[in-house]
From TrEMBL:
The keyword Transferase does not apply. Its EC number is 3.1.26.4. This is ribonuclease H. It comes from the Eukaryota. Keywords: Endonuclease, Hydrolase, Metal-binding, Nuclease. It is an enzyme of class 3 (hydrolase). PANTHER family: RIBONUCLEASE H1. The keyword Metal-binding applies. Belongs to the RNase H family.
Amino acid sequence: MSENAATAIPPLLGDVPLPQNDTDPRREYGIQCSFPAVPASLADRNRRFQPYPATLTPSDLFTVGQNTCSIPGYQFIRKNDQRQMLMFCDGACSNNGWGGNSVVEPRGGCGVVFTCKEIMPNGLSSPLEINGIPHTNNRAELRAVILGLDLRFWPGGGFESLVIACDSEYVVLGICDRLQTWIKRGWQTSAGRPVANIDLWKELLERLRELEKVGCHVQFWKIPREWNEADKCAKQAAADNNPINNPPTTQLLEKILYVESL
């Protein structure tokens, strides 16, 4: 499916209402979810999520469902596979690529959406941390994915497969097609230059390996921008006038715990 062909906006997963009387026998009988480790080589070969047929949308494959954690929560869960969930991730940057006569420093923001609006009306968003490295769209997109992976111990919810839906070609091509080549070259490009954003690429790879050790395989789904339900969150975060100095995981975890306690 070409990018130009995907102009229609499908039904939003965020608009799906909470299911009624949704119980899972695995929670009722206290069954613990544990999965065998995923070999890194196998995970890397199957890093790209490819729906069949390719025209399927997130709402065709996933819906709002309850996880199997002892403290229940609602996520976007595969309709025919309760062990696979999806989250939308996006990054944005105001004044991206500034330079020349520009005096406005770029500000990046991250957005993550993994449950319906009934639970989190505005999704999760946070500005990109201020750490001396200039903000760009690419850095914001990478940080958004890392943030999504850090929000929970996803295997604890009964998930052995996690699908990251994002519209960033930079992220999806990088993690699915280029990462292993970069590693073999000592984190250099074909031109012999250091890979851009190497700190975040290494951090992302570390998160993937940690999840694989506990049996959770992360895949990446390149979707059209119009389908990305985290787009608005990321743009709002990029416009935030309250910059932070550390990665945003802690403050967003506190927000999740507060919302789910209501």
